[in-house]
Amino acid sequence: MTIAADQFDDTLSPTDLQQFIYLANNVFELLETTKRELERDREAAKASLATASSILQSEIERRSRPKGARPGALAGWQMARVRAFIDENLHRTIHTMDLSAIAQRSTAHFSRSFKKAFGEPPHAYVVRRRLEKACHLRLPARHR
Predict the structure, then answer these.
(1) Which of 21, 39, 73, 120 has its CB surrounded by the most CB atoms within 10 Å?
(2) Does the pLDDT at position 107 exceed 90?
(3) pTM for this entry
(4) How confident is the model at residue 8, as a pLDDT?
(5) What is the 3-state secondary structure (H, E, C) of the chain?
């Protein structure tokens, strides 16, 4: 997953700054441990890398929410993945269970979060996208 630097809200409150420094120090320590353990204990090195990666991913996801994002709504990366999946699979049945797996949320939590993020339930969104695609396909080629 790639996140553009301009998506981050770079204004840190003192509490956020302390939390960021704490996380950065933890990631630094994990990476230093990985360097030391790489030759001696590859499994310990892998575990340190996995933990560092998880910490970074959580921080990226937390900070990549669009400004003004609604609490409980899908994060930006979740919205992008779900939207891409829907657009690529309009020709087949799309189950909420599949969408929730892409967003890494339970089905019930996903459905509530989707509605907050998109303003409509998943099924209504898929139907609307299908109609939009059908209308687009019906236009003469010069109007597309």
Answers:
(1) 73
(2) yes
(3) 0.51
(4) 45
(5) CCCCHHHCCCCCCHHHHHHHHHHHHHHHHHHHHHHHHCCCCHHHHHHHHHHHHHHHHHHHHHHCCCCCCCCCCCCHHHHHHHHHHHHHCCCCCCCHHHHHHHHCCCHHHHHHHHHHHHCCCHHHHHHHHHHHHHHHHHCCHHHC
